[in-house]
# Entry
Amino acid sequence: MISSLVKTCTSVRWGEWSLIALFISVLSGMVVALQYDPATPLYSSSSLDILVPYGSYFRSLHFYSSQFFFLFSLAHLVAVFNKTEGYTRTQWIKLTATLPLGLLILFTGYILRGDSTGSSAGIIGENILLAIPILGDPLNDLLLSISDNHMKRVYVNHIISLGVFWGILAWEHLRVYRTSFNRHLLLTGLILLFSVLIAAPFEPDELGVFYTAGPWFFLGLQELLRFLPTLVAGVIIPFLLLAALALLRPANRFFRPLLIFILIWLIAYTILSLIALGR
# Structure
């Protein structure tokens, strides 16, 4: 009885925390978006820090609240896994699909910065999409299209399209949760304070630097791309994890092998990320 209550409280806590971080991310993102010009991404990002009152703070707040939202969402998915046994296969696939979609929202945010990390991430992301047979060109045209449209497509997807799609996929699960800032004043205060103390990263191009580390969640993939073909490293290997997550249901007779595969995949990816971080 007690352990069941603890699990319920834990799952609710992570879910509500992720929503609080999401609310802060959206609100601070509105401020950042008003000052951003996709035609001049690097200038927009740097001028936000220098010329706009409290611009640096709002950029940091948007950056870190978005990261916290994704991390809390991961913890929430793990916490509620046992409670999703009654989900249909479609409901579970929709729920797990919110994770790569959330990563894509974070990824496009990195690209929009227009600094050395953002520019490199955009080039690599576009090359990965274009490596997909048949579907590569239309997918790239839909999601990034940086070579043809610069940041316009990325900007629209980041602030509108991807968020709306994420909401549609998550709605059935999301609608059961209710929260407010009043219930989580400590978390809200910590996120606000964290963004004051630690500025969001911004790396302008540096002469003599030939290796640029991508976003933290992209590091393992970036390392894989050094040794494997783009299609294998950037598409097939990540897809295997997503497929395993989609099939990870307690009733599935391959549940244990799938769980072991996911754990091995995550451990290997963490090791690769640490290697890339140390370069």
About this structure: Residues 1-9 have pLDDT under 50 and may be disordered. Residues 2-35 form the longest helix (34 residues).
